[in-house]
Design brief:
The chain is an alpha/beta fold. It is built from 9 helices and 14 strands. It has helices at about 45-55, 90-100, 135-145, 155-165, 205-215, 220-230, 235-265, 285-295, 310-315; strands at about 5-10, 15-20, 25-35, 60-65, 75-80, 110-115, 120, 125-135, 155, 175-180, 185-190, 195-200, 275-280, 295-300. The strands form 3 sheets. Strands 3-2-1-4-9 form a 5-stranded mixed beta sheet. Strands 12-11-10-13-14 form a 5-stranded mixed beta sheet, with helices on both faces. Strands 5, 6, 7 and 8 form a 4-stranded antiparallel beta sheet that branches. Helix 4 (about 155-165) packs across helix 9, helix 5 packs across helix 6 (about 220-230) and helix 5 (about 205-215) runs antiparallel to helix 7. It starts with a strand and ends in a 9-residue tail after the last helix.
Length: about 325
Amino acid sequence: MPVPVSIGVEIGSRALGAVATDRAGRTLGRLRLTRETSSVAPSESDLARLASALRRRGWVARSAWAVAPREATTLHGLTLPPPETGAPLDKLARAEVARIGHRSEDSFELAWWLAPMAHRRGESVLATAAVVDHDTSTAVLDGFESVGLSLRGLLPSAWALVAGAREDLPTSGLGVLLDVGWGRSSLVAVSGDAPAYERRLSSAFGMYVRSVAERLDLSDAEALRTIGRVGELEGRLAEIVADGLRRFGEGLAAELDESIGYLRSLWPDESIGQIVLSGAEASGLDDWLMTAIGLSVISPTRAPASMVSAYGASLIAGGCERRAAA
C-alpha cells in the first residue's frame, strides 16, 4: 500500500540523496544513488532511477523539496532597510541582486533572509540572498516533473542544513555548521532557528580523494574506497592516506579559523562552543579539526552526516521546519 511521505532530496555532484519523513518528522527511510552524470541538473536516467527507488519503497510524496545544488547557487550579502520601515524588501532584495550581478531581475530565482539577530549597519540591516539562474532552476524542476516527482521548489542549502541539524545546535549563543562537500564546503552560522551567516570554503573532500588517487595511481572511486578502509590500512598506504587527511585538514582548519574570527567580530557577545560536522564522512577529520581549532566538533544525531540537508528538506516539506522567503 502506498505510504504518503514528505521527501527531501539533495542533488550532489556525485550522488542523489533522499529522505522520507512522516507528518511528525520521524524518518521512514533514506536512500543514496551514485549519479551517472555530474551536470548541475540531474540527467533523466538518474532521476528515473531515483523515482523507481522511491516507488519500490511504496513512498508517495505528499510534499517534496530539493536542496539547490551548491555549484549552481550564488550567495550575496545585501544591505536592506529595517523591516519596521515597511519598505518592500522582496522587491529591493531582487533589485539589489540584479544590480550586483549586472543582470535582469527576471533571470534568476531568489531566496533571501535577514539574520535572526539582524546585524545593523547604520540605518540598515544585513541580509543573505541565495540565487540560482532561472534556466538552471527550470531544468532541475522540469527534470523531476518528467519522472513523476513534483517538487515544491529548491531550498537554499543553509536552511536545509539548519533544519536537519536542529537538535545538535545550541539553544543560546551562535551555532556553527560545517558541511564538507566534494567540490566546495560551506560554513553556516546559526542563531535561534535560522541561518545568520554563510560562507563558501574552497577546501573540499574531493581534493583529499584526488591527492590520494594521484599518489597511489588510483581512480577517484578506488581512492574513495581506500580512504573508507582507513582503520585497516598499514605501511605506505596508511601514510599516504594520513598525509592526505593532514593536508586537507590544514586547509580546512585555516579557512574555518578565519571564518570563526569574522563571526566573533560581527557578534562579539555571542559564544561559539562547538561545530556540527556534516557532509562527506572523512574518518579522523573531526579529531583533526578539534585539535587544530580548539573547539568541540560533533556529528549530527538525527541523520547520517552525508544526509543532513536531505533530512532537513524533508522536514521543511512536511511543515516541521521553517524556510527562507522565496
